[in-house]
Every structure is written in structure tokens, then in C-alpha cells.
Amino acid sequence: DQQVKQNSPSLSVQEGRISILNCDYTNSMFDYFLWYKKYPAEGPTFLISISSIKDKNEDGRFTVFLNKSAKHLSLHIVPSQPGDSAVYFCASYSALASLDGSSNTGKLIFGQGTTLQVKP
Amino acid sequence: DARVTQTPRHKVTEMGQEVTMRCQPILGHNTVFWYRQTMMQGLELLAYFRNRAPLDDSGMPKDRFSAEMPDATLATLKIQPSEPRDSAVYFCASGPRTENSPLHFGNGTRLTVT
Fold first, then answer.
1. HSE (side-chain half, CA atoms, 13 Å) at B13
2. Confidence band (pLDDT; 50, 70, 90) for B40?
3. Which residues contact A40 (CB under 8 A, 6 or more apart)?
4. B38, B100, B104, B109: best to mutate for the A interface, most A CBs within 10 A
5. CB pairs below 8 Å between A and B: how many?
6. Chain B: closest CA distance from residue A32 (Å)
7. Strands lying side by side in the sheet with A4-5
């Protein structure tokens, strides 16, 4: 049961244009969402996150949008740069499901990833 | 710059052999996760620990996989016996004792079972 889905395995955009990566989730208990970027032969690195109490979070060229009713989130990169070429993973967890008084770092569930290629 | 350290980076072994992967989480982090990257499943959660106690290992094939944290500076993932279908990249990640802080990943162990 894939609770977090990235239905587009790959995306190719021209440098300077907008990249839009999409992610859907099925678990209504998820209340925190993250995007990670992964280069070959390296581990994923955190990019941006959003809490379920918000519908948008922006950090420089990166913006994440959350549509809770549709259980959908997207990552926008504007403008796209060749260095953005990587695999992007969305991930979600439920902070409420992991409360034990010591930490809210929950069980993080990842999607399958989308390979973004930005062409010069 | 604190990092999660995984060893070995690469491992090639024959089917039936035991494989042990090691992870040194970032000092002070109290959660440790093991993920496996495959083409079909993306990043698949195998197990995770909080304060060295296993919280969830439902993603692991129990008959051959085991995960432990003998101390706060070492997490291990063991496969015995290994099979060709176990070939993948295995990632360890650790998280701090801070609400909603992201996980930090190691660079992975690429396992090839022939």
C-alpha cells in the first residue's frame, strides 16, 4: 500500500522555466510534508517542508503547495537551473501518531521519486 | 558539519552470505531510520528506532533481516542469508530531538548480491 505517490517518474524542463513536481498521499493522518533532493551516489538532502496548518511555504526559488482536501502537494522551482537536476522525493508523516513526550520525529514515508532534468 | 556515516559504501557478496551494514548517526540525534532504495518502491522504510528502542520494523523481511542499536553511536542492519533480490542501496538517517526537524541521511551502502 503506497501511502505517498509520485506518479511522474521523470520530468524535463528548460533552464529558466518552472518545474512542477507533484505528490499525492492517502493517509489523512499525515500532518507534515517534506521534499528531499537526491544526487547520484549521495543520500537525500532536505529541501523544504510544510505543515498541514499551512497551504504554502516558500524558500527562495522553491515553493511547496499543499491541498489537504485533495491530499495533494506540489513543489515549484522557479526559475529552474541545471544544478537542480536530481531525483526529488516527497515524504510525509503524522506527528500525532508518534507522540511519546520525547520527540515528534515521526515515521517518515517516502514516495517513489521523480527525476528532474533541467536542460541548459 | 555533522554527518551520518555509513559503512561500507559498497558491498558485493554471494547469495547466502551474511551482510552487515553500519551507521553512525549524528551525535545527539535520538531517532534512526533504515531505508532501502529500489526503482519500483522508491525509498522504502525498513525499520526505525527512537532512543535506541525499535519502534517499527514492519518493513523488514523478518526471517532474514535484523536491525539493532547496540549503543547511541551505532546502528546495524544485518541480512542473513542474503539473496539477489536484496540488491539495492540502503540508507540510514537520523533525526534530532526537535519537533518537525528533518532527517539527515548518510550516503548509503550499495549492496550487490550475486
1. 23
2. confident
3. none
4. B100
5. 77
6. 8
7. A4-5, A19-25, A72-77, A62-67, A56-59
**Mean local confidence (pLDDT), A107-120:** 93
Cα gap B73→A90, rounded to integer Å? 28
Residue A105 has its nearest CB partner, among B4, B101, B108, at: B101
Query: What stretches of B28-105 adopt beta strand conformation (E)?
Result: 31-38, 42-50, 53-56, 65-71, 74-79, 88-95, 104-105
Q: Which positions ≥6 away from B44 have C-beta within 8 Å?
A: A110, B35, B36, B37, B38, B59
Flag if B50 and A107 touch (Cβ within 8 Å).
no
Rounded Cα distance, B101 and B114, in Å: 38
B96: distance to nearest CA of chain A, Å?
A: 8
* pLDDT reading at B6 higher than 90: yes
Spatial CA neighbour of A91 closest among A28, A24, A35: A35
Band (pLDDT 50/70/90 cuts) for residue A117 is: very high
Dmax over Cα atoms in chain B, in whole Å?
42
Distance CA A116, CA B9 (A): 25
- pLDDT higher than 70, residue A114: yes
Chain B partners of A35 at a C-beta cutoff of 8 Å? none
Q: Is A46 on the interface with B (CB under 8 A)?
A: yes
For chain A, the residue count is 120
**Which residues does residue A58 pair with via DSSP β-bridges, in sequence order?**
A63
